[in-house]
Amino acid sequence: MVTGSSSMMTTGLGMFSSSDHTSVIVSLNLFVALLCMCIVAGHYLEKNRWMNESITALAIGLCTGVIILLTTEGRSSRLLVFSEDLFFIYLLPPIIFNAGFQVKKKQFFRNFMTIVLFGAVGTLISFAIISFGAIHIFKKMRIGSLEIGDYLAIGAIFSATDSVCTLQVLNQDETPLLYSLVFGEGVVNDATSVVLFNAIQSFDLSHINSSIAFQFTGNFFYLFISSTMLGVLAGLLSAYIIKKLYFGRHSTDREVALMILMAYLSYMLAELFYLSAILTVFFCGIVMSHYTWHNVTESSRVTTKHAFATLSFVAEIFIFLYVGMDALDIEKWQIVKNSPGKSIGVSSILLGLVLTGRAAFVFPLSVLSNLTKKSKNQQITFNQQVTIWWAGLMRGAVSMALAYNQVQGKGSLFSRSEAKLRGNAFMITSTITVVLFSTVVFGLLTKPLMRLLLPSQKHLAGTTPSEPSTPKSLTWPLLEGGRDPETDQIDGKPNVPRRTSFGMLLSTPSYTVHSYWRKFDDAFMRPVFGGRGFMPYIPISPSDQNDDQWSLTRQ
Amino acid sequence: MVTGSSSMMTTGLGMFSSSDHTSVIVSLNLFVALLCMCIVAGHYLEKNRWMNESITALAIGLCTGVIILLTTEGRSSRLLVFSEDLFFIYLLPPIIFNAGFQVKKKQFFRNFMTIVLFGAVGTLISFAIISFGAIHIFKKMRIGSLEIGDYLAIGAIFSATDSVCTLQVLNQDETPLLYSLVFGEGVVNDATSVVLFNAIQSFDLSHINSSIAFQFTGNFFYLFISSTMLGVLAGLLSAYIIKKLYFGRHSTDREVALMILMAYLSYMLAELFYLSAILTVFFCGIVMSHYTWHNVTESSRVTTKHAFATLSFVAEIFIFLYVGMDALDIEKWQIVKNSPGKSIGVSSILLGLVLTGRAAFVFPLSVLSNLTKKSKNQQITFNQQVTIWWAGLMRGAVSMALAYNQVQGKGSLFSRSEAKLRGNAFMITSTITVVLFSTVVFGLLTKPLMRLLLPSQKHLAGTTPSEPSTPKSLTWPLLEGGRDPETDQIDGKPNVPRRTSFGMLLSTPSYTVHSYWRKFDDAFMRPVFGGRGFMPYIPISPSDQNDDQWSLTRQ
């Protein structure tokens, strides 16, 4: 992911830079206990209309920070020092993989072009506006010595939508269209921010010309396509291995272990080749839920579904807990404490730029996207546009990690130059402020806002026309639980006669692409890689005889 | 666990001491790919009568070590540097917790006294013999300057049975008695080795007298009881929280996350209080499988059972893979390469001492244990004694970690004194040799040996008398799958009339203790902490209506 400089990596994979064994044990104990607290608190606040799990974790993190600050007499608010590696190597992969594994695939691919438009062009627009605004306003404010690269980095940092936050705020079952748009945008957004960050740190920024812009575009397409391909290949390989060896005959544990390891391998390979690991692992998750998941035993299916969700859930809470605790780190605030007004000003300006930058691409691009859709039902209404704009405003752990990367890449907070030091401190503190403010305030307001703007969410979701298929498909959605990774595959059984009249072909072109894909899938892909209804039926244990019951019991 | 010195902990929780980001990524990629290879290879070798998963992983690790050694032109055979913390903080907890979670509880508690006898007294006997032998033989060989503390440390290192290996070699379903004896011994063994290690590093060894022996015994009982209590408390707390809050109504993920986190918390708390974390997490696993597991939803039950097993499985392979790669570390071998004969001699002597030390306690203590059992069926036959002796001979990752701890605690391999350096190098290389030899040779021979000594294993296992209970219990074992953590609880349904005639009370006293416990459990524990049949029946989803079917489908 972020591979700008290597000097920041001096701690290697050292997750925590505490040097004392006992203090590490103490920290881990407190962290695990806090995670348990967050889970229990989250359970009680579930029905609350304002709160969500992220805000609870942030609040608990902040409180713990205050307590530690008081007990250590102001020396430190942190138990563990934030390491980018901890975030990018251990916490992010399960979150994004699980998102791909559980995403409603049909909804996602139907809006694929819109998602890429938002994620690529939109992020560039947002980046340009925030960078341009920062250059013009901050130069007048004199907040320390920042170079052109720093301003562009600010643009990249604050145009990185936090997909983790989005997952918490939007509900896939209630608002499938919005979820797939905002979350999909967040995933593509990552590829864009990798290109932006690499570009800022490697290109000669004093000579921006058309050849660099061309190189930049080529780089983006290369990254996007190769990352996706790697993820798809890893997923298909796992499906093929499990289908050929038929592990289930021997061991559920082997199947589960292989799925987890292959997914993680795809992420790490992408990191190795400087691709967008987030895109890779996301597509690996999609392919695994389409093929691999159907090749394993029933107990492996239940286990993977819940184990991946649990891993992702714990990683998310961990991140928010950490951001909450990290926010109170005293060192950074001491540098900027002499100019509190300026600090608040910088943060407010950045928040304003984030709001403007997002508005500047959501509304025009939505209109553009609507032009290509003939059916009224598929268009994005104005209220939905406002929700998309709002739901993508949150900035989270990704922004924090990028900010630390930019500062550390240039000689850390303890830079020799006083002006440099002040500039860096402002960058960190304002990032923390924006992250906290956007997560807490925007996050708190999202649920009420959505209730206001989209009062009939369930109804809206229901209006997406059902796929042309046999009447049998009408009974399937009732049999399938809402959280089944495969609800999209309504008529997944092979050899079911399919009505594809020519009139329907013309009126709904996007369905045609889908139905061609389905034909290709049934004819070539599934026989090789397995998938629903394509595994040989070998009764091994009594559990297999209950296969049909499973569709009922799976929740 | 091992808390002797803090100077060795300078890397903190830094799992790998590689300093370059890219090399970390490369290492992780290779490691994950190798893990996948081990799983696939293990699948193919399942039916093989010699191999097991540990030996496969060791072999793959050794081959990789050779390849790396050749490609780096002899500079390094290792991708990642072994850190004790990686082992004790991340890899060991899931293995031991899963062992407790899946252990057949009735078998374990029936042999509880024998297990403690083997684990505590047996380890002390073994320790004394190995230390005494090492002092007398090595002093004559002049293999470098070793102090009395080093010889005692050698005794502690080589009397640590590797419970991970045991899990791989013995099968719980085929030989339940042997499994519970050898594995249980391994768990208690750990508590003993912690006391031994702490004693060696903290007591003044030049003045061994009766007060130290008394202190030592007191320390052991304190450790044993407090570690067990902590594990039981953590397990009960998790059962209580999940029962009271009834998380399942909302989220399977929360339940699974809470179980994992509470188990890990118990391990880390034991580490914090210098207790035996292995004992704690083992008992936490037992309590969780008895209470907590029955309070969660069906999908959580399937998920936890397989997720814990998978975690443990991957951690085990990881350890053996690493030990295989680490064995070829060139630095250590270069120091001892001038005296290959001496090196082989030291290793052979140590292997001989391990064999003698184990024989010296297994046979006498088995006879002692047989004296207390009146029923012929419950006694340990001579062939079984030989198997117990043989199956506990393997030394693994625990011995490696202890050896590194002893060496690093005294100023690392790069000690200033040449004699010291040689002594340390001999200690490490001979540990590696013993670990490799015992795992590969003893491990390979275990399966054939058991087939030879115990030809009618299944028959033997069947002779353990079934619990006095209603005829209903006869149908239960058929309904229950072999891997259900609760097979022991044959008549778990409350309010079932139980035949407890006075005659039976006298003839089988150990069952009486068990039946008193059952009464207490049903009257006081289960109403508070839940357990089989003690959760309120609230139909939430269709899955609950299939509860009885589940006993059938669970495999």
UniProtKB/TrEMBL annotation, chains A, B:
Q: Where is this region: Disordered?
A: 460-496
Write the protein's name: Cation/H+ exchanger transmembrane domain-containing protein
Membrane topology of this protein: Multi-pass membrane protein
Q: Name one GO molecular function term.
A: potassium:proton antiporter activity
**Which taxonomic lineage is given here?**
Eukaryota, Viridiplantae, Streptophyta, Embryophyta, Tracheophyta
Chain ranges of the Cation/H+ exchanger transmembrane domain: 38-451
Question: Which regions are flagged for Polar residues bias?
Answer: 463-473
**Cellular component, GO annotation:** plasma membrane
Q: Which domain of life is it from?
A: Eukaryota
- Provide one Gene Ontology biological process annotation: sodium ion import across plasma membrane
Q: Calcium among the record's keywords?
A: no
Among InterPro entries, the record links this protein to: Cation/H_exchanger_CPA1 (IPR018422), Cation/H_exchanger_TM (IPR006153), NaH_exchanger (IPR004709)
Subcellular location(s): the record lists: Membrane
Keywords (A to Z) from UniProt? Ion transport, Membrane, Potassium, Potassium transport, Sodium, Sodium transport, Transmembrane, Transmembrane helix, Transport
Transmembrane residue ranges: 24-45, 57-74, 86-103, 115-139, 220-242, 263-288, 308-328, 349-367, 387-404, 425-445
Quote the catalytic activity from the record: K(+)(in) + H(+)(out) = K(+)(out) + H(+)(in); Na(+)(in) + H(+)(out) = Na(+)(out) + H(+)(in)
PANTHER family, A to Z: SODIUM/HYDROGEN EXCHANGER, SODIUM_HYDROGEN EXCHANGER 3
Q: Does the keyword DNA-binding apply?
A: no
